[in-house]
Amino acid sequence: MSHQRKLGKPTDQRLAMLRAMTTYLLENGQIKTTYARAKEVAPMAEKMITLAKNPNLANYRKALAYLTKEDVAKKTFDELGPKYASRNGGYTRVVKIGPRRGDAAEMAIIQLV
């Protein structure tokens, strides 16, 4: 299993943050965040799209259990699943955009390809 970054947060807060960011990414197509967070969000977003490629009730409910907005889950299954049907993985891209002004944290944009 790959090593999970802790991102300086307790487990519950970290999971809540990743859920929120994954939901936001699927909703809006891209997010600007720190590089470390982007690297954690990517696999979760990929998982959600992979679920949506095989649309059945069980998979829909798995997605609902993770995503924080029902309409985003619906969009993932109605639009994103079919859109990536012919593509095997690699639905997201993480692009570094340089350091943040305040604390020089490496910033990145994560986007759906």
Protein model, in words:
- The structure is a single chain.
- With 113 residues, the protein is α+β, with helices and mostly antiparallel strands.
- It has a single domain (33-112), classed as Ribosomal protein L17 (50s Ribosomal Protein L17, Chain: A), CATH 3.90.1030.
- Helices cover 54% and strands 18% of the residues.
- The protein contains four helices and three strands.
- It has helices at residues 11-28, 35-53, 57-66, 70-83, and strands spanning 30-34, 92-99, 106-112.
- Strands 1-3-2 form a three-stranded antiparallel beta sheet.
- Helix 1 crosses helix 4.
- The longest helix is centred in the middle third of the chain and has 19 residues, at 35-53.
- The protein is globular and about 45 Å long.
- The two termini are 25 Å apart.
Task: Offer a concise description of the structure.
The chain is of the alpha+beta class and 113 residues long. The protein contains 4 helices and 3 strands, in the order αβαααββ.
Strand content: 15-25%
- The share of residues in helices is 40-55%
Describe the global form: globular
- Write down the Rg: 14 Å
Question: Any idea how many domains?
Answer: 1
Please name the CATH topology.
50s Ribosomal Protein L17, Chain: A
Order of helices and strands: HEHHHEE
Broad structural category: alpha+beta
Give the helix tally: 4
Question: Please, what is the CATH homologous superfamily?
Answer: Ribosomal protein L17
Poorly predicted runs: none
Task: Report the span from N to C terminus.
Answer: 25 Å
Architecture in CATH? Alpha-Beta Complex
Largest sheet: 3 strands, antiparallel
The spatial strand order of the largest sheet comes to 1-3-2
CATH class reads Alpha Beta
- Quick one: how many beta strands? 3
Mean pLDDT: 95
